[in-house]
What we know:
Elements: E1 6-8, E2 14-15, E3 18-20, H1 23-32, E4 40-44, E5 49-59, E6 62-72, E7 79-86, H2 93-103, E8 105-111, H3 122-139, E9 146-151, H4 153-159, E10 165-173, E11 182-185, H5 194-202, E12 206-208, H6 217-234
Parallel strand pairs: 1-4, 7-8, 7-11, 8-9, 10-11, 10-12
Antiparallel strand pairs: 2-3, 3-6, 4-5, 5-6
Helix pairs in contact: 2-3, 2-6
Amino acid sequence: MKHKFTFYIDPDDILGDNAQFDHSESHHISAVLRISSGEKVTAADGQGNRYEIRLEERVDDCWNGKIINKAIHEPEAPLSLAVSLPCLREDRWQTALEACCEMGVSQVWLVDYDNSLSKWTKTRIEKAHRKAIEILKQSGGSYLTAIEGPTSIYDMILNVNFSEIWVAHPSGKLLSSISKQAALVIGPEGDLSDREQEALIKAGSKLFTLGSRRLRSEIAVVVAISQAALKFETE
């Protein structure tokens, strides 16, 4: 069965039954896939909706089209969780981000921890946003993982109303249950600082384990969201 490609269209670029793709998507449509005027394409707006759009004309190298059909494809994020993501050396953080986006995590918070060995730079942040859109398209989803931050863990837990907060820690137990809109906190390679641990305790966080072995942070994220996904599926 031939794969049907899904493009991304920003909700702000939809007006009534008219839609306009940005330069990046327009280039992909024309230069990569060789799709031309009059042909139909499928697009997702990152808010759960999917569209069938007939291409009409290019204006300033951006494709304009007419919306033929709109349907709700994903009424909510497949994995309604927020995940704190430390910046990791080189591009190792991408492994964790890709897992979150492919699993359909609703939010990824880019956190600069006290003991982080790397920090979130403008280049890395922009790359994270592009990566989220890229994965939305290749995964066939319609709900875009929101990339938030960068921020500190203090501001994250103080300014966002999570249903509950779970912190990965060796003394914890396997996730017995987890509610939607909860936050999963994964520390950096240098571990959480004493001050960060105190702040999380004051916020009423709970501890969960990732197993008996010490995991790299990017692998810890994968194991954590896998535990959460399994609990959501069995409840």
